[in-house]
From TrEMBL:
The gene is PRPSAP2. PANTHER family: PHOSPHORIBOSYL PYROPHOSPHATE SYNTHASE-ASSOCIATED PROTEIN 2, RIBOSE-PHOSPHATE DIPHOSPHOKINASE FAMILY MEMBER. The keyword Hydrolase does not apply. This is Phosphoribosyl pyrophosphate synthase-associated protein 2. Residues 28-138 form the Ribose-phosphate pyrophosphokinase N-terminal domain.
Amino acid sequence: MFCVAPSELETKMNVTKGGLVLFSANSNSSCMELSKKIAERLGVEMGKVQVYQEPNRETRVQIQESVRGKDVFIIQTVSKDVNTTVMELLIMVYACKTSCAKSITGVIPYFPYSKQCKMRKRGSIVSKLLASMMCKAGLTHLITMDLHQKEIQGFFNIPVDNLRASPFLLQYIQEEIPDYRNAVIVAKSPASAKRAQSFAERLRLGIAVIHGEAQDAESDLVDGRHSPPMVRNAAAIHPSLEIPLLIPKEKPPITVVGDVGGRIAIIVVVVTNTIPHEIQKLQCPKIKTVDISMILSEAIRRIHNGESMSYLFRNIGLDD
């Protein structure tokens, strides 16, 4: 039913050839928990590296062991300071490249700027920019998980393995939620209906879709490519031309009154540990974590040993 059986993965851990170096590119110690779990499953020690910030906020990376001719895997989990996280990764990749590493694989469970993958008026497709920067820095392979849009893989000119967390989430539902068969899978928007349908089919449950007014902040803004445009001084510019104005609908703000802590109907929020959230778990006991270090460890092992990655994508639907 699932793409990977955890018991099968456990039997394949700690089986790696020599020449593998595992680094964590995070200067924040709270972001290294996932890296330590992956290293423990692989049976290797974390590589020796110093990543820190200068007084002027410049990022400095010092690799303290030889990587010449070795397969380097750099694990980077995204912290609140996304821009610093990106620079830490780029500088470490470039440092390994100039140190003659055989290959440099970035393990980025949550790919930053992945939501900025579409052109919006006079904006930019930042995901494409970031992909180009990573490839230029020296990245030769990328392992990530559940990209916001699968098409982001096309921004890279290197191999990209977009792993899925759905098997672990489905396993959590089956094992931890009592009477889960008396439930329904709800898609929060029509855009997520396909993924919800994929979950519902594998769990053999019904599906519902919440359809409402779009909350995109830019949906009320209009530029010259739409008609009629929002022109405030059209009469002053062209007295003979009158263009009807589009008045955005005003939406009343949502106000929560009183102490609602513990009274919200949500029983549990299930998330993965692709990003650190230990502080949030202390603040909200409803947050439950699903560990995905197992599949990341197996992906690293297979790439290092030159094995096929198709095993990790068994029974994964097109809509996952």
